[in-house]
Amino acid sequence: MQAWIQSSNLLNLSKNWPLEFRKQQKDIIALWHACNVSLVHRTYFFLLFKGDPADSIYLEVELRRLSFLKEAFAKGSLGNEFSPSSSMRALRREKEMLCRQMQKKFPEKEREVKVS
Fold first, then answer.
1. 20 to each of 1, 13, 32, 80, 90, how far by Cα in Å?
2. What residues does each domain of the chain span?
3. Start and end of every NPK1-activating kinesin-like protein C-terminal domain (predicted)?
4. 83: nearest Cα among 70, 99, 100
5. 40 and 97 Cβ atoms separated by less than 8 Å
C-alpha cells in the first residue's frame, strides 16, 4: 500500500511539476531580491536546476532557507554581522567587482553587445 501511495504522489508531482517549478522559481527570485542574495549563488542555482522533477527537493530547501533568512532579517535575530544592510553592501561590492572584471576582460564594444 505504501509503495502505491508513493508512486501516486510521484505521478501527481510529474503532472503538476512544470507549473509548480515556475511558481517556486518565482518565489525564490522574490526572496533572493528581499534577502540580497549573491549573484554568483543565483547564477549557479539557475544553471543547476532546470526544472527536472528530481530538483524539487533542492527548490524546497532553497525556499525554506530564504524564508528563514527573511524572517530572521525582519526580527533582527541574526545580529549586526549579518543584516539586510550588510548583505546589501556585500551584494553591491560583488556587482562592482563583476563590473571591473567585465571591463578588464571585454572591450567596450563587446560589453555593449553582451549587455544589450
1. 26, 9, 18, 36, 31
2. 17-115
3. 20-112
4. 70
5. no
pLDDT digit string, tens, across residues 36-59: 999 999 999 989 998 899 889 999
Cβ contact 40:91 at 8 Å = no
List the one residue out of 106, 93, 94 whose CA is nearest residue 40. 94
CA pair distance 57, 55, nearest whole angstrom: 6
CA pair distance 68, 70, nearest whole angstrom: 6
Q: Spell out the residues 6+ positions from residue 111 whose beta carbon is closer than 8 angstroms to its own.
A: 102, 103
Task: Provide the whole-model pTM.
Answer: 0.74
